C-alpha cells in the first residue's frame, strides 16, 4: 500500500509540475520523447527495452516498471530536497533511489551516474526512428542532441584490444560507403501512408518483427517499401498471396510478375546501402521464388 501511495503521490507531483509549462516549451516534445531522452542519460542492464516499452506511460510509472532494469552499481541517489524522507513514509520499503528517480524533476546532485553513459541500444534506435517520423523541427534537434551525446560518449571509451565477434552471422555487412549513400536525399527513409486499402496486407506489414515504422510504408530511393528494420538496415516487402491454392498456370503468372519486381526493389535498396527481404505466407511460395532467383532473401511469415 505504501508503495502504491508513493507512486500516486509522484504522479500527482508530476501533474502539478507539468500543468503550466512555459510558453516557449508548449507543444515542443511529446511525453514519450521526453521520457526517452530522460532515460537515455541512465545506464540500463537490458539495453533499454523496458524503457522503450513503457515510454508512453507517465515518468513515475515508467520508473516503477523499469527500476529493476537500472544498473544500480553505477548510480548513486541523494535526497537533496528531503522530499522522499518527508513525503513518502514508505521510502524505506520503496527505496530511496526509486523515490528520487521517479520525482517529476531531477534536482541537480540527486542522481549521480558513475562513468560514461552510452545511450542504450533500444533507446537510441527509438530516438533515431522518432527523428525520421516526427513532424516538428524542435523535436529533431532534441533527439539529435541525444544521439550526438551518445557518439561523444562512445568516442571517450578506451579502444578494445581485440575486436569482438558480432555473433550475428545472419546480418549483412554494411557496405563501406553506405553512410555516404545515406546522405543522398533519396536514400533517407521517409515514413509515408500505406498505399491502397488492403488492410490484411498492411496488418502483416506492420507486424514485421522490430518494424521501426508500424502503420506506415517507408519511401526509399523512389520506392514505397512495406517495412524497415533500422537495427538490421533491412527493407521489407510482404506478399500475402495464397500461393498454395493457385493452379500451376496462375502460379507461373504470379512468379513472372513478382520476381522481376523483387529484383528491381532489391537493387533500389542496395543502392542506398540497405538489405532487402521478402516475407511470404508459405514454404511453397518461398521455394518457388528461390527457384527463380536463389539470391533473394525470403522468409515465411510466422507472425501473420
From TrEMBL:
Q: Which Pfam families match?
A: DUF6310 (PF19829)
The record, for InterPro entries, names: DUF6310
Q: Where is the signal peptide?
A: 1-25
Q: Where is the composition biased (Basic and acidic residues)?
A: 138-163, 178-187
Q: Where is this region: Disordered?
A: 138-206
Superkingdom of origin organism: Bacteria
Which UniProt keyword terms apply here?
Signal
Query: Can you give the residue ranges of the DUF6310 domain?
Result: 180-304
Q: What's this protein's name?
A: DUF6310 domain-containing protein
Amino acid at each position: 500500500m505504501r508503495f502504491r501511495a508513493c507512486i500516486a503521490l509522484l504522479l500527482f507531483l508530476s501533474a502539478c509540475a507539468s500543468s503550466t509549462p512555459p510558453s516557449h516549451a508548449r507543444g515542443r516534445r511529446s511525453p514519450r520523447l521526453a521520457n526517452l531522452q530522460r532515460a537515455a542519460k541512465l545506464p540500463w542492464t537490458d539495453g533499454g527495452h523496458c524503457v522503450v516499452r513503457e515510454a508512453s506511460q507517465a515518468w513515475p510509472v515508467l520508473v516503477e516498471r523499469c527500476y529493476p532494469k537500472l544498473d544500480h552499481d553505477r548510480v548513486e541517489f541523494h535526497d537533496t530536497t528531503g522530499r522522499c524522507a518527508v513525503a513518502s513514509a514508505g521510502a524505506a520499503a520503496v527505496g530511496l533511489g526509486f523515490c528520487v528517480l521517479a520525482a517529476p524533476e531531477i534536482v541537480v546532485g540527486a542522481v549521480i551516474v558513475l562513468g560514461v553513459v552510452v545511450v542504450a541500444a533500444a533507446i537510441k534506435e527509438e530516438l533515431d526512428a522518432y527523428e525520421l517520423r516526427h513532424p516538428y523541427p524542435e523535436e529533431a534537434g532534441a533527439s539529435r542532441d541525444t544521439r550526438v551525446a551518445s557518439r561523444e560518449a562512445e568516442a571517450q571509451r578506451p579502444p578494445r584490444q581485440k575486436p569482438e565477434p558480432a555473433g550475428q552471422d545472419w546480418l549483412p555487412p554494411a557496405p563501406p560507403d553506405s553512410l555516404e549513400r545515406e546522405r543522398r536525399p533519396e536514400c533517407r527513409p521517409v515514413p509515408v501512408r500505406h498505399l491502397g486499402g488492403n488492410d490484411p496486407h498492411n496488418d502483416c506489414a506492420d507486424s514485421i518483427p522490430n518494424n521501426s515504422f508500424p502503420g506506415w510504408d517507408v519511401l526509399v530511393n523512389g520506392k514505397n517499401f512495406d517495412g524497415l528494420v533500422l537495427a538490421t538496415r533491412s527493407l521489407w516487402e510482404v506478399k500475402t498471396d495464397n500461393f498454395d491454392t493457385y493452379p500451376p498456370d496462375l502460379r507461373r503468372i504470379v512468379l513472372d510478375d513478382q520476381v522481376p519486381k523483387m529484383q528491381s526493389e532489391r537493387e533500389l535498396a542496395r543502392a542506398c546501402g540497405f538489405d532487402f527481404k521478402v516475407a511470404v505466407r508459405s514454404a511453397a511460395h518461398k521455394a518457388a521464388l528461390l527457384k527463380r532467383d536463389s539470391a533473394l532473401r525470403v522468409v515465411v511469415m510466422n507472425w501473420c
